[in-house]
Each structure stands twice: as C-alpha cells, then as structure tokens.
Design goal:
The protein has 232 residues and is of the alpha+beta class. The chain has helices at 2-23, 115-118, 195-199, 215-224, and strands at residues 26-34, 37-38, 45-46, 52-69, 74-76, 81-85, 93-96, 104-111, 134-136, 140-149, 159-165, 175-180, 188-194, 209-210, 228-231. Strands 3, 4, 5, 6, 8, 9, 10, 11, 12 and 14 form a ten-stranded mixed β-sheet that branches. Strands 1, 2, 7, 13 and 15 form a five-stranded mixed β-sheet that branches. Strand 4 and strand 5 (74-76) form a beta hairpin. The longest helix has 22 residues, at 2-23. The chain starts with a helix and ends with a strand.
Length: 232
C-alpha cells in the first residue's frame, strides 16, 4: 500500500512539474542596437561607411509570431500584430503563455502587416491608423519606419526618412523571417535588431527618403530582415 501511495505522489509531483514548465510565461524581448551599442535617444552612432546617424523614430510591426518545438508542435501568438517602438520600453517585451520552452527550436514571424489585414480598413489596438503607421487603404500599413538625422544627409534639417510598406504587387513589402533557437531557455529569448547592418548598405547622401510603396521600398524591406537575429 505504501508503495502505491509513494508512486501516486511521485506521479503527481512529475505532473505538476510538467504543467509548471508548460504554463510559465515565456517572453520575447526586442533589443535595438547599433553594432554593439544599445540604441538610445539623442546619441550619435557611426556606420561602417563613416556616416554619423541619430535616431528620432524607429517603429515596426511584428505579426503572426509563431514558435515551434522539436516535436513539430507550434505555439501561435493570439494577437494579430505588435507595434514595436524602440524608444517605448513597454513594447519591447512580448509575453507568451503555455509554451513548452524547453523544446523550442525556432521562431517565425512577419515584419509588417499582410495583405488580408491591410484591406480590412480601420482596425483597433496596435493597428489603429492613429498610431501613425497607416498610409491609406490603397497603400495599407507602413511595416517599418526608420527616421533620424545625419550630417551626411543633405535634406532639410539633415533628416532621413525610410518608410517601408505596401501590400499590393509588385510592391508587397511584408517580409517573413524564420530563425533558429538553440539551447534551453527558461524565461525567454531576445530578438536583436541591429541597425548597423541596415546602414552599412546605404549611401545616406544619395538614398535618404522613401515615403511610398515602390521598388526602393522593396529593396529596403529585403535589407531590413538582415537586421534580426536571436540571442539568449
């Protein structure tokens, strides 16, 4: 009898431990950097090309976030999209529940808003047009904004503006990224956004203003996905 009681309590203990692992909050942290430096307001950074840049506004959409574990099971974000503002700390952590984090092996997400949601018109939450990330129904959402200033930029007030968006071909600017996750994580993983990798491919003296869906916006959208990587 004692043997059965002992086995019963062992089983309950293992079950509780399993449930605790599965139900614990798992966070996706977003870390905006320029090379090895964290991006902060009013600070100057130097690109590989020798351009000095300062950032006023960097915002982008993460949508359809999905984790996959080693058994092929997927854990999908309940929210359509998250508007990330690198100068707003509350947007830099996305919590997920009911994820078997010990078996996570990859993450998949979109940078931007897909065509289905773009044609729905005015939406709420982070997709509210009043957030300043919506052009018009003909053009849809702005997937990513990178704005700031540089002495090498000859525009008024030395300002550069890169607005990447568009949901209709041939200017469909949403990009999908799939990144491997290696190791065991108990609290979450960090999605690093390194703007150094973006500006090392840009001649800001001649390329400094993209404001509509276009071939140039598509090229920058292709370039933007190179900024992202997963770290512990």
């Amino acid at each position: 009898m004692y043997k059965w009681i002992r086995l019963y309590f062992i089983s309950i203990t293992l079950l509780c431990a399993s449930v605790q692992v599965f139900a614990q909050s798992f966070n996706l942290h977003i870390a905006p950097v320029f090379g090895k430096e964290r991006i902060v307001e009013d600070k100057w950074y130097v690109s590989r090309n020798g351009d000095s840049v300062q950032f006023d506004n960097v915002r982008f959409y993460l949508s359809n976030i999905e984790f996959e574990n080693e058994k092929g099971a997927t854990f999908t974000d309940a929210r359509k999209a998250h508007l990330i503002d690198i100068f707003e700390p509350s947007t830099l952590k996305i919590p997920f529940q009911n994820i078997d984090y010990q078996g996570i092996k990859k993450i998949k997400f979109n940078i931007g808003i897909d065509s289905t949601n773009s044609v729905l018109g005015a939406l709420g939450g982070d997709l509210d047009p009043q957030k300043g990330m919506y052009w018009a129904w003909q053009s849809g959402y702005i997937n990513m904004k990178i704005e700031g200033r540089s002495p090498q930029c000859k525009n008024r007030k030395n300002a550069f503006q890169f607005h990447m968006g568009g949901y209709m071909q041939p200017f469909y600017a949403m990009r999908t990224l799939e990144l491997p996750i290696k190791g065991i994580f108990t609290e979450g993983v960090t999605l690093t956004m390194d703007l150094y990798k973006f500006f090392e491919k840009i001649n800001i003296n001649t390329q400094n203003s993209i404001m509509i869906p276009s071939k140039e916006a598509m090229q920058l959208a292709d370039l933007s996905i190179q900024m992202f990587s997963i770290n512990k």
